[in-house]
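Submission checklist for the structure archive. All mandatory fields must be present; incomplete records are returned to the submitter.

[x] Identifier: Competence protein ComG
[x] Organism: Halobacillus faecis
[x] Residue count: 150
[x] Sequence attached
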Amino acid sequence: MNKSKQKEHNGYTFTEIVIVLLCWSILLSCFIPLQYRTYQELEANMTLQQLKEDLLLTQHLSMNEHVYYSLNFDQESGGYILYDAKERKPIFTRDFPDHWVVRLTTLHPTVRFNQKGMIQRAGTMYLYTPNKTYKIILPFGSSRLRIEEI
């Protein structure tokens, strides 16, 4: 008689398992959108940081090697190329994430710097992401670009 009572209390009932699974699914459904938003913010920060560094590299190469380096933006493909016009070859190509849209407003598609590190044609461009819009300003002079979140 002692063994029959022991068998009744081993394990969980079907209702208890369903309640626990329901609680876990509710918690996970709240967590996954937060994780996706965090991923998108991290992707945006890394892409904008890479763009800053590539513009700085173009400026640095123009000042120290020759002025024939340029950063060429392509609105249709959604990326840019660091190009060496003296050697007639691309140094590297970078693409913006697939869901981003690039719009050059006053910025010329080809960004060049002179020997003193000043941009030849200043301008503005916009980067549209699924959640945010960024205004990128390349001012006259040797100052760095400015990124504003709109």
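[x] Structure attached
Curator remark: The helical segments are 2-8, 14-64. Strands lie at 69-74, 79-84, 89-95, 101-104, 110-112, 123-128, 133-138, 146-149.
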